[in-house]
Amino acid sequence: MKKEIEQELNKQLNRELYSAYLYLSMAAYFESINLKGFAHWLKVQAKEEISHSMKFFEFINERNGKVVLEVIEKPKVDWSSPVEAFKDAYEHEQKITSYIHNLVELARKNNDYATENFLTWFVAEQVEEEAQANEIYQKLKLCEKSVGGLFTLDHHLGKREE
Ligand code: OFO
Question: What is the value of pTM for the model shown?
Answer without folding.
Answer: 0.96
